[in-house]
Structure formats: structure tokens, C-alpha cells
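Forum: Protein Structure Q&A
Topic: Joint prediction for protein chains with partners

I've read a bunch of threads here and the consensus seems to be that you should model interacting components together rather than docking separate models afterwards. I'd like to see that in practice. Below is the full input, 509 residues plus whatever partners are listed. Could one of the regulars post the assembled result?
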Amino acid sequence: MNVILKTEKLRVEYRNRDFRQQSKVALVGLDLEVHAGEIFGFLGPNGAGKTTTMNVLLGFVPPTSGAASLFGIDVRQPIARQRIGYLPELTYYYKFLTAEELLRFYAKIFGLTRAETDKRIAQLLKLVELEHAAKRPIKGYSKGMQQRVGIAQSLINNPDLLILDEPTSGLDPLGRMKVREIIQRLKDEGKTVFFSSHELGEVEAICDHVAIVHEGQLKATGTVAEISAGHTNLEQSFLKIVGYQTTLVP
Amino acid sequence: MNKIFAVAGVVIKELYRRKDFYVLFVLTAVLTLAAGAVNFFHDEKIIRYVKDLCLLLIWVSALLVAIITTARQIPAEREARTIFPLLAKPVSRAQVIAGKFLGCWLATGVALFIFYFFFAIITGSREHIWPVGVYLEAAWMQWAMLAIVIAMVLLGSIYFAAPSSTNVISFIVVAGILLVGGHLNAIALSQPEPMQTVLAWVYFVIPHLEWYDLRDFVVYDLGTVPARAVALATLYAAVWTGIFLLLAWFGFRRKNLTT
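Posted by a regular:
Agreed with the consensus. Here's the joint model:
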């Protein structure tokens, strides 16, 4: 299978503005490979380096050393992002625009024709059930509706790879189910999904492969079955890998 | 180019959906209309003072719109984190800078030409002459000057974290150049060394925004400026705008947006 997302010996250091303090190392020699058609769960406790990895993949943060590529193109080149969709953890959209205007704006960035844009917007608004609110400014939307706009914008270019940063965080059960359905549907269409999550049950249910990072280092990678082997479930395995020890006295 | 226009389109949409822009716009329009309508002491020459006052108002308002709108572009994108979904698309940081510049410049241009339209109606109704060419030339030169200002403010907004700092510093720099920029070489001659050399250098390295002020041509009916001079001034504005945008891109390209 084609490798469509790859990092090699990826290292990211955040320099401290105060020269007396040491720089913070966020990633240490991270090697990742995501193949076409996979649903890849990227796991780790808070501060493990998940968001930094995504920031490098999306070109927000330059790597200190090592390399990262999407579809074989260096992530520092904007064209590497032509075939991806990105859903941030929180809703970071222009609140003065309507959902339709926002989708039209992003479609223009991707270079879609007017006819393609109209068709795609209609499909996506139907998918995320926002047809009735398409012409209302996003600032008047509920949190769930804003998250659904986020899903729609991440799919505007019909991406081959979807990068999701904790997509179900803060959603109600219905919202979570919707996101899961969309991920499953994308998988059925042969798309690749790379997502970070703290919801290990969800990861176990839908992922083909998982990688666990801790303190900026890759601790384990493999199929869900491989990672969970010898443990009751993925959560137990995850806790062991990150070295969690209970502080509760029985 | 489509990506640049798309970013510019969002800037323009934001501007006309913000209430503060309308307040400034309506205030300027009302003041221009009011100033044009009064007739102190039934003096026929009073129209010159009215024109002078209206043009000053237009200059101040256009500068306010340009500086305030531009200063908040990049910091607001960072603060609201809208920059992330945008940069996650196949758009380069250079295109974002170019789009922001274009949006601010076009929006300011629309406001400026509407101000001049009001001005032409008011003065035309009083003087019964319509020097359209002079007004268009004055508006064009002011718009060219605003391109330099917008690019300079965009550069400042990359380095200063808060829009308020960018606003204040930009106003001081622009006002300083407009008021004393053209006299620095003369001031330098009366200064002892090393101040003389320093001031002479400053005179030669600052963008001369005061060259674009054609208010006297409008107020005193001096006719149009030769087209060659306008073309050279436009070229000069394009060069300075390019320099500032290049520096802004250079700073933005290296900027870590996640901190």
C-alpha cells in the first residue's frame, strides 16, 4: 500500500525566549507511516506531542530536524495540502461569514470551479444537516452546529487524507456518532483518516492502526490487535505503555 | 491569484459587516455634508475653507480606516485561530499576506472614492464647476499613498503582538512623515554633525507620503498634475509597497503561529 503520510526522525524544539531557560523538546526522532485507506489513531496523553506532530504536518510549525511529507511532498510546500482536509479540535472559523460563504471561500482556495463548488456545498450541507442554517452567520450557531461546519469545510475538496484533531472532543453523543459515521463512510470510500483522540473506546472501534506517543517519542505502533495483545483492551495497554501507575491506595 | 482574491474577499466582507467602519464612514459623510452646506458671512471665498476642511477630514478618515483595518488582520487571525484552518489549505503565507493587503487596499479605496464623491457633489453644488479630473487625480494619489501605509502597517502587525501597538506606532510614523518628512533635508542643514548626517539619511530612506498630498491643487484650483509625475509617484508607491510586503512576508514566513 502507498505511504501517504510519513515522518522521518522528526524533531521539534521550541526555543525559549528567556535565554537562561532551556528550549522545550516537543518531538524526538518521530518515525510514522500512514498507508492509503487506513484509519490511523494517533494517541498519547496531554503534552505527548500529538498536536505538535499535526502542526508540523499542516505546515504551522517547521521541524527542527528530520522530515515530514504528505503524498510524497514536503509538508513545507503548500501544494502538499491540496489533497487533505483538516478538522481542528475547536471551531476556528470566520464567525461573520455564513456556512455557505465559508465553504465557498475554502472551495476557492482549493481552486474548485463554480459548478463543482455549488454541487459540493449542497452535498456537504446535507451531510452535516445544516441546509436550514446555510445563510445564517456562524456566530449564531450552537457549538454542535459549528463543529458540523468544521466537518463540512474539512471535506470541501473531497480529500484523500483527512487529519482530525480530537474530532469528538466536547461533542454530545449524537455529534460523536455523526463524526464516527463520517469517518466510517470515508473509510468505505477508500479515504485515509489520521486522527488524534483521547477516546480509546472509539479508537478501538474504528481504527486499523494506532501509534502511541509519550514525551515526544513514539512508544508503540501497530494494529489495534497487536497493541492490545496481552491486555484486556486498548486502554489497559495504553496505560501500561505510557507508564501510568495508580496513586489510589486500595 | 484566485487564492489571493479569496483572502481579500473575506477581508472586505469583514469590513462591511463591522459596525465601527459604518460609524466612521457615516460620521465623515455627515461632517462633509454639514461643512459643505454652511455659508459663513455669505462669503463667496468660504468654499476654499470648506474644501480644505472636507479634504482634511477625508485624509484623516481614510488613514483611520486603512490603519485600523490593516493592523488587526494578522493578530485577529492568530487570536481567533482562524489562521490554522486557512493555512491547512494549499495557500502559502505569501498569498495570505498579499490577500490581506489587497483586501485592505480595495476596501479603503472604495471608502475613499465614496468620500470623494460626496466631496465633489458638495463643492460642485456650491461652485457650479466639476473638475472631475483633479478630483480623480487627488483620489488616485491618496489611494497610492494608502497602499504604502497599508503595506507598512501589515509589516508592523507581524512584529507587534497587539493591534493597538501597531495602530499607535503607525499613526505616529505616518503623521511624522506627512508633517515633517518633506522638511527633514532643510532641518538637517541647520543641525550640527552627526545629527545633520543622520537627518539627511532619514530623509532619503523614508517613503515620502507627503508627495501624494494634492489637497492644495483641489482647494486652489491649480489644475491637474502632469501625468508623468503621477505615473512616477505611482511607481514609487508600488516599489515601497513591494518592499514592505516583502519584509512582512519574510517575518510571517518564519513566525511560529502556535505560540
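The interface with chain A takes residues 2-3, 5-6, 9-10, 13-14, 17-18, 80-82, 84-92, 95, 256-259 of chain B (CB under 8 Å).
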